[in-house]
Target: Flavoprotein, HI0933 family
Amino acid sequence: MITYDVAIIGAGAAGMMCAIEAGKRGRTVTLIEHSDKPGEKIRISGGGRCNFTNLHCGPNNFLSANPHFAKSALKRYSQRDFIAWIDRHRIAWHEKTLGQLFCDGPATQIIDALRGEMREAGVGVRLGVSVTSHMRKGEGFELRLSDGTLFRCRSLVIATGGKSIPKMGATGFAYDVARAYGLDVTETRPALVPLTFGPEILERFKPIAGVAVDAIVSAGKTSFEEALLFTHRGLSGPAILQISSYWREGEEISINFQPGFGIFDELKSQRGENGRQAIGTAMSVFLPKRLAQLLAADCGLTGNLADQSDKKLRALEAWLRDWRIKPTGSEGYRTAEVTLGGIDTAGLDSRSMEARHAPGLYFIGEAVDVTGWLGGFNFQWAWSSGWSAGQHV
Ligand code: FDA
Model:
């Protein structure tokens, strides 16, 4: 029976990076992927241009039961290291906004570069096969694949990602393996996902579906200032995707439509100049018109600007700074960009990603309870954790 030094399950960003690093260290590596192509999420990410990292990436851009866990890997293989890797492969890139780096051309360039490095490092890639059984054998593991192959490995790396987008081959495999070897799994839920509303609120939102606006969106003590979008199902856009990772079912979110200047002062001055315009029309100086009309009505204001007292305008300003709404749920794993939660980091070594009480077993990438914000952070975690494990397997 063949014995590999390393078997890696899952050929996503984390699995491929780990395979390259292990192969470069002279390890014999087999990479097993149940889809017929590696790196499918890289290919579709960032609208096909892959937001592959973020210039400002740091541990504070991640959610985890242990916020310190990601520090070591992110420091040992940082965004600067991955940018240097991208440059070495002559992949042209640009910063879009907020430090988010995207390929100028198709994201498949990154997959091709990863595949090229795997070839050079002697990594054997098996596509279209899955693991049907795994068990501890001596100091290593014995695995059987769906094509009947049986082999052993000294190190087993689980890089099968989270549960988001089951249509693309996402499974809960990593969590099952973790539990089988005595590791805990924290609560998992969809994150970076649009939020949805019940029929009553949706009926009110109908006229503004498709309207986008910049806003500060908060859940509890966390806020993000980015665009939000009203949809036929609820709310989407970067600000909403970001806050979805912090929002809990049953809670309200607060939206601040503050335009960056005093709403009261603006409306009072407009009232002096043209008091006969409708309140919703006056508000359209700083908000999309359809949204302004809905918000004015929501606040109980009707009629012309001249009809509004200072007190009412002050109340409107306060209302627009803290517009509260309670989502009923999210669009779920069907559209979520990531899975929040995962393999409990308490059971892992933060330098190597090895399970503390199951020597030779490693977990990397999205499967682990380290979840990044929107903006290239999740890929950076995949590169960093994959690279770190690759130095130890
Ligand atoms: P990933 O999910 O990429 O790879 C896991 C691999 O394991 C897959 O190839 C899967 O088929 C395979 N697999 C699963 N179960 C298996 C099993 N039982 N046996 C064998 N193989 C198995 N992030 C970011 O930083 N910038 C961005 O622009 C985007 N954009 C984006 C868009 C969309 C639509 C989505 C869904 C997600 C993003 N993300 C993102 C998130 C990012 O794609 C994600 O965090 C990383 O791909 C995670 O990398 P992993 O290698 O950990 O898992």
In short: The pocket of dihydroflavine-adenine dinucleotide is lined by residues 9-15, 32-35, 40-41, 44-46, 50-51, 130-131, 159-161, 164-165, 169, 171, 173, 337-338, 365-366, 376-379, 382 (CB under 6 Å).
